[in-house]
């Protein structure tokens, strides 16, 4: 390593990808520093996956109490206290922040508190400190895209939803991505009336069309009101503290809280990327090659600040591989094939591989296997909820191209399906697998009749 710099490797951002990369680089003997101006752990720990999943757990108890009656439980006097859930979540996040701090400390990584700005290609300013580094990693993540319509100052984004002073009676959620449908589940499960509006014909663009239609129908049955081909024109605050939302089609909706979830943007504010000539993509993400290298050879970027899939495990894998390659003498790469995805909506979604539309667009001759059924649990609970399962199979090779599910435990079931697809599983392999009975997942190995074909 060169001794002309303060650090061999300096990481901007102590989120999942940055922390992993810093720790692995230090384990290879590099002198490593990391800068973070907010809480350790990044979006996932503080304002994303972890608190959102805890809220989703909380929201599931309400329907579960109703379901219990059909099994003989006499549930009376049930009530919900929002501050308890909110504050217990915050305590857990604080515990995780401490764990991340210890991980860095035990790895020998020096933590500098503050946001980093480039002074030149090797020099960074963090608060009152100025440091130099031979190699620099940008892992600054992403943040919610702010709305721009009149009255946007009255609207919250996902960062705010985790710390509300009180739970609204009604909420209007704008957006059609996984964040909007997950928060629709959370608030509806906690007893809030939910209106969800999206500017296109159906939400969850890019997911299998059957999943999208199925989830919309299930949400509407629950009482979530979906407004498709609809978008916000303006928001006005009423004298009583409520809000009047005017849609672009002229319709108006009155609500107690407006939540905009219209996507996320790379977090490069204050970085000084332009000052050093760092190349950005048209959408503001940092342009990198297959080795996560920017146009400045010793500066790298991983995670949500780039155009690779914006998922925590992806950022971790990228940061780890980069550190191994730079300081461990390895030649590792990240496998982006068959990345399983879960959406913690209600019912939850688990999906991996190609959607039916994508498989056809790529020229595959496909057989579609599909089933929809009432889960065994709801034969006694009485709940009007179904599960959807779907396999997309290449007719010529028998290879399973996609596995899609909307139903209880889908996020847990889809993980082993990812292993199967990465091993090149065929429909014959699925058919030869003995089912676990009685479970919902056994349907994946008992579907025999083709639902549709090319």
Can you give a write-up of this model?
The protein is α/β, with parallel strands linked by helices. It folds into three domains: 200 residues, FAD/NAD(P)-binding domain, CATH 3.50.50; 111 residues, FAD/NAD(P)-binding domain; 113 residues, FAD/NAD-linked reductase, C-terminal dimerisation domain (Enolase-like, domain 1, 2-Layer Sandwich). Strands 1, 2, 3, 4, 5, 6 and 16 form a seven-stranded mixed β-sheet that branches. It has a six-stranded antiparallel β-sheet with strand order 17-18-21-20-19-22, with helices on both faces. The protein has a four-stranded parallel β-sheet with strand order 10-9-8-14, covered by helices on one side. α3 packs across α6. The longest helix has 26 residues. The model has no long low-confidence stretch (mean pLDDT 97).
How is the main sheet built? 7 strands, mixed
Computed Rg? 24 Å
Q: Roughly what is the average pLDDT, rounded to an integer? A: 97
CATH homolog superfamily of the largest domain: FAD/NAD(P)-binding domain
Q: What is the CA-CA span between the terminal residues?
A: 58 Å
Number of helices: 12
User: Roughly what percent helix?
Assistant: 25-40%
Portion of residues in beta strands equals 15-25%
How many separate domains make up the residues? 3
CATH architecture of the largest domain: 3-Layer(bba) Sandwich
Question: Helices and strands: which structural class?
Answer: alpha/beta
Q: Which outline best applies?
A: globular
CATH topology of the largest domain: FAD/NAD(P)-binding domain
Low-pLDDT segments: none
Main CATH class of the largest domain: Alpha Beta
The number of strands is: 22
- This entry's quaternary arrangement is single chain
């Amino acid at each position: 390593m060169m001794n002309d710099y303060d650090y061999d490797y300096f990481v901007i951002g102590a989120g999942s990808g940055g922390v992993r990369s810093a720790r692995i680089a230090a384990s290879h003997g590099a002198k490593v520093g990391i800068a973070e101006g907010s809480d350790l752990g990044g979006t996932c720990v503080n304002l994303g996956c972890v608190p959102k999943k805890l809220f989703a757990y909380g929201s599931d108890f309400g329907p579960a109490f109703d379901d219990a009656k059909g099994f003989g439980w006499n549930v009376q006097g049930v009530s919900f206290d929002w501050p308890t859930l909110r504050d217990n979540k915050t305590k857990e996040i604080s515990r995780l922040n401490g764990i991340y701090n210890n991980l860095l400390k035990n790895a020998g990584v020096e933590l500098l508190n503050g946001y980093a700005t480039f002074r030149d290609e090797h020099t960074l300013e963090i608060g009152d400190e100025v440091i130099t580094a031979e190699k620099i990693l940008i892992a600054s993540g992403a943040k919610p895209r702010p709305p721009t319509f009149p009255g946007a100052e009255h609207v919250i984004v996902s960062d705010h939803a985790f710390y509300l002073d009180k739970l609204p009676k009604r909420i209007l959620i704008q957006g059609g991505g996984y964040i909007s449908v997950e928060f629709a589940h959370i608030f509806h499960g906690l007893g809030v009336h939910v209106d969800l509006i999206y500017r296109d014909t159906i939400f969850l663009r890019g997911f299998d069309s059957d999943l999208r239609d199925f989830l919309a129908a299930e949400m509407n049955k629950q009482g979530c009101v979906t407004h498709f081909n609809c978008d916000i024109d303006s928001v006005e605050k009423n004298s009583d503290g409520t809000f009047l939302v005017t849609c672009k089609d002229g319709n108006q909706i009155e609500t107690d809280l407006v939540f905009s979830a219209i996507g996320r943007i790379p977090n490069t504010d204050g970085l000084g990327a332009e000052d050093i000539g760092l190349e950005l993509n048209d959408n503001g993400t940092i342009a990198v090659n297959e080795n996560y290298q920017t146009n400045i050879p010793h500066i790298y970027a991983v995670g949500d600040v780039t155009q690779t899939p914006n998922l925590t495990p992806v950022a971790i894998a990228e940061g780890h591989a980069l550190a191994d390659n730079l300081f461990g003498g390895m030649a590792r790469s990240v496998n982006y094939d068959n990345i399983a995805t879960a959406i913690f909506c209600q019912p939850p979604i688990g999906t991996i591989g190609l959607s039916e539309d994508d498989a056809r667009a790529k020229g595959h001759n496909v057989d579609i296997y599909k089933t929809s059924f009432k889960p065994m649990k709801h034969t006694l609970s009485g709940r009007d909820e179904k599960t959807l399962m779907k396999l997309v199979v290449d007719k010529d090779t028998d290879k399973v191209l996609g596995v899609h599910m909307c139903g209880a435990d889908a996020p847990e079931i889809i993980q082993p399906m990812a292993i199967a697809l990465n091993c090149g599983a065929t429909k014959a392999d699925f058919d030869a697998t003995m089912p676990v009975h009685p479970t919902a997942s056994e349907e994946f190995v008992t579907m025999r009749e083709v639902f549709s074909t090319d």
